[in-house]
Amino acid sequence: MSSNQKKRNFQIEAFKHKVVVDPRYADKTWRLLEHAINEIYNHNASGLSFEELYRSLFFLHFPILSYDLQVTWISAMSRIATEYLFTINSHAYEEVFGDLGLEGFHIYLRKLSLSYVALTTDLQKLIINAYNMVLHKFGEKLYTGLVSTMTSHLTAMSGCIENAHGEMFLEELNNKWTDHNKALQMIRDILMYMDRTYVPSSRKTPVHELGLNLWRDNVIHLSGIQTRLQNTLLQLIHRERTGEVINRGLMRNIIKMLMDLGPSVYQVDFERLFLEVSADFYRVESQEFIECCDCGDYLQKAERRLNEEIDRVSHYLDTKSEIKITML
Length: 328
Fold this sequence. Notes:
The protein has 328 residues and is mainly α. The chain has helices at 25-41, 50-61, 67-75, 79-88, 90-97, 101-111, 123-135, 139-162, 168-190, 192-196, 198-201, 207-220, 223-241, 248-260, 263-292, 295-316, 321-326. The chain has 17 helices and no strands. Helix 8 (139-162) packs antiparallel against helix 9 and helix 14 packs across helix 15 (263-292). It is elongated and about 90 Å long. Belongs to the cullin family. This is Cullin N-terminal domain-containing protein.
């Protein structure tokens, strides 16, 4: 090669042929994903198996293989073979799972809490279609569809909570919150690619945070639930202050739910009212103590009440509430 010959930079050119997408692709694909989300919320997620997850992730990075060959190969896949194939394609898995690479892939599989045994399911369609919807620029349809579907289920959940009577109100709220969290975790795992690519590039709310916001707006801030929840929590605390034994475990779960929804939710929906009611309670009680007790007894009762509030905070309130309640 002569010295005056210029070096050419290596370039990868795009395929010459144009990929034609079925005009009905987005609608048909979303219906499959919508059905899967419905199954998750309806407690039918056991049909979403690891075998299909392996198949779908394999297909994402080996698309030239026929479907029959995918099925045959994956059915006989061992963990060693899986690690080998995913290791030699680590660059692709780093794109999806970040710096964790192959380790992240296995963590992802374990998080789904499903069996390695092959089951007859449609999870491969779920994973690959969610990926391809984003790839084919249908991320907005996937995201808005997710919002609509989750909102529909949360509306139904709020109706069940509203219809719960007496002490079952908090129980039903706690059960539905648990169900929503489990569904949200699975949905977030399934839509991981959308969450890592489309969401930040479009400045959308991440899936998990979106699920919390929808729960807040469609359940907790529903007029028939919000006031009732506030009154129920304050009544239970009042009963505990007057000597009754309450379900502290349930209280802890409900208060934690408010905290998980954000500091503003806990502070506005509960803490502010809690401090106001507490101030009124101790204002009345302190006046009664002054009228019937000497100075020593008054100080003892005040100290006992102070310790009770500290204990209450440690069991089911936000730790930041301690200084506020003890300063009343």
